[in-house]
Design a protein that fits this description.
Layout: E1 5-10, E2 15-20, E3 25-31, E4 34-38, E5 78-82, E6 85-90, E7 94-101
Antiparallel strand pairs: 1-2, 2-6, 3-4, 3-7, 5-6
Length: 104
C-alpha cells in the first residue's frame, strides 16, 4: 500500500486539507454547518484512473450553485489539483474529518 500524507489547517473561518501521494481518497468534513463530502478532482492523468470516488457531482451544481460535493475551479471552497494529490478548502472550521481510501 502506498504512503499518503494528509495535512490539515483549521482557522477561524475555514479548513484547508492537503492530500498528497494519491488522489484515490474521499474526505468527509464535519463543521458547524453540517457535513460535506469532497471527492478527488476529475480529469487528472493518474495511474489510478477510474477511482470509485471520481464523481460527476464534483464542481458547480445546477444554476451555478456550488454542489455539496465540492466547489468549482473559481470557488473559494472545493477541490483543486496539486502536483501529487489535491487540496480541499472548506468554508468553515472543521470539527472532524474522515478520509476514505479507494480499494485497489
Amino acid at each position: 500500500m502506498d504512503e499518503i500524507d494528509i495535512d490539515a489547517r483549521v482557522t477561524d473561518d475555514r479548513t484547508v486539507i492537503d492530500v498528497s501521494g494519491t488522489r484515490d481518497v474521499a474526505v468527509v468534513v464535519r463543521s458547524g454547518g453540517g457535513e460535506r463530502i469532497y471527492l478527488p478532482p476529475e480529469g487528472f492523468d493518474d495511474p489510478i484512473d477510474g477511482s470509485p470516488y471520481t464523481s460527476p457531482y464534483q464542481g458547480a451544481g445546477a444554476g451555478g450553485e456550488e454542489s455539496p460535493y465540492g466547489g468549482g475551479s473559481s470557488s473559494t471552497r472545493g477541490v483543486i489539483d496539486t502536483a501529487d494529490g489535491f487540496r480541499i478548502t472548506h468554508p468553515e472550521p472543521a470539527t472532524e474529518f474522515d478520509v476514505f481510501r479507494g480499494d485497489k
